[in-house]
Amino acid sequence: MEGFLLILSIIVPATIRSATPLMFAALGGNFSERSGVVNIGLDGIMTVGAFSAVFFSYKTGSPWMGLLGAMVAGGLFGLLLAFLSIRFKANQVIVGTAINILAASLTTFLLVAIWGKPGQTNSVSAFQNWGPFNIFTYLAFVLVGVSYYVMFKTPFGLRLRAVGEHPKAADTLGVNVQLTRYLCVILSGVLGGIGGASLSIGSMNLFKEGMVAGRGFIALAALIFGKWNPIGTAGACLFFGFAVALEIVSNKLPIPREFIFAMPYILTMLAVSGFIGKAVAPAASGIPYEKGER
Amino acid sequence: MENRTSEFKIRMQKNTKAIAYPLIAILLSFIVGGIIVAAFGNDPINAYKAMFKGSLGSWSNFGETLVSVTPLILTGLAVAFAFRCGLFNIGAEGQFIIGAISSVWAGWAFTGLPAIIHIPIVLLVGAFAGGIWGGIVGWLKAKFGSHEVINSIMMNYIAMYLSNFIVMNLMNEPDKAFSFAIADTAKLYRFAESITIFKGSRVHIGIVIALIVAVFAYYLLNKTVRGYEVRAVGFNPHAAEYGGINVPHNVVFAMFVSGMFAGLAGAIMVTGVQFRANNLFGFTGYGFDGIAVALVGNNHPIGVILSAFLFGVLQKGGPMMQLQGVPKEVVGIIQGIIILFVAVNFVKVLIENYTEKKNSKKSIAKGEVK
Questions:
Q1: Tens-digit pLDDT profile for residues B165-195
Q2: What is the CATH number of the domain that holds B123?
Q3: Which residues of A touch B321 (CB under 8 A)?
Q4: Is the minimum CB–CB distance between A258 and chain B shorter than 8 Å?
Q5: Which residue of A has its CA nearest to B163?
Q6: pLDDT tens string B119-145
């Protein structure tokens, strides 16, 4: 019993800590996809955010400026995705993939160019823990509530969902489809940037090559598993965080650790295929809007 | 007769555009890369010189470039084939991993066979396993309508953890983070064994296999009924269905073939270069690079060969730039920009905007109302 309590006291905080960066990115994906733009580039945006946070903290000595820098950089990459997929009507999945490749190489290039060594940056000033968690964790939970409220209880939220479900109808009623999508995709970039910052100046105090390690894709999985709803998504993030946290005690479990790691992905596949409650994407997600098209 | 020549002319124009647009995009990306190099105080001309010298400057460097080109051709074909059926196979990475681990098993399990029999078995096992991994995604799409992009991303991770489980538990070289090695009879022939100019490079017969597979893919897509059906589904699934084509069947088939190509890439990396499977801490990147290769190659088998070669040159030449004081990551930036330019069909949009403006000026001058 004591052993169980001990494990619990390790696993619960570890779950919440691992879920924090996922929550930001998944909320970002939520806004983007609800407005009709698929954001496969979240992983790259997180990388850019993680790097920018360290860079600006290094330049100014303040982690707050680092956070701001991450938000701006993430927002800019969101703008890039928005511009290419809305203005140029490029394939959103391909642009997202290109953003992932570009982000990985851009940050490793700048890392070498600025710090003069590959692998990782020097330590910079980061956020301290307040109680058991750092500021990002508290912020994440607040943002989940705010996002839910904005998406389901405000006129803007109604418009953004309409744009993602049936842009033609929204357009007819005078909603600016393109502008709404721009705003949502940029917002998704900002949130992805914060998610990256929570890794580099939240859990750690430096940027390491490959530190995001596919969390952007896990966030996408959480988004689907949570059925494109901020609260459901946050629950999915906590669940996926739990799978990561189990690693700490994985040598005490009878299941191979690789199976624990693979669990979130298997569950997501089951969810999209309708085995555990059908997850249905916003109807117009991934489709560029053409005015006047039937 | 006149009709024929004009038809020929239109086709030629279309082909020229299909080749010229990506070429201009590549050139622009190199210029942007050069500007970045210059911005950090290095000479871009020297950097590019070093890159091409490092990848093409000698027979052994050229051989090593071909070593990187080989899997890129196959994963590029994998993505391109699925794309022609309207499917985005982002899961070539996972199919590559599954192909690799399966071929390690086949390379180890069958012993006492002559190489001429053992090698084809190993390659087929790898290709087939990759095909199953891709086919599952196709089946889920055909049966439940679940999106192939999401499922194939998930299957990438599942493949990585499954492969790691096998490497560390079932086929582990004791106390090492890799699997045991394949038998000598499963190893591909290396050119350096009999052609002295290739000495010092690991270039192997896999490049020839990859080229043959590209020709096969071209034939399958363009000269067979099945290929016609696959393309018809990719062009417009509703019209294809109305025309009596079994859409779900073709979706599964295209994903299976696509997975086979990626699985074969993994098998060839194992039998030609690595001889074993490693415990992976992240993705190998071959599958993701395949997306870029297919995109730049316009999803055409010949285009895929050419763009795989370009990416091979970039990847092999990057480290040589490092010796000139330019971080080799600049190569990745160039790759990313190439993909962005090609993805948005930047050159086409640019040219069409320009000609549209010119035409509208003309029509205004003529007094026409648009």
A1: 999 999 998 888 899 999 999 999 999 888 8
A2: 1.10.3470
A3: none
A4: yes
A5: A258
A6: 999 999 999 999 999 999 999 999 988
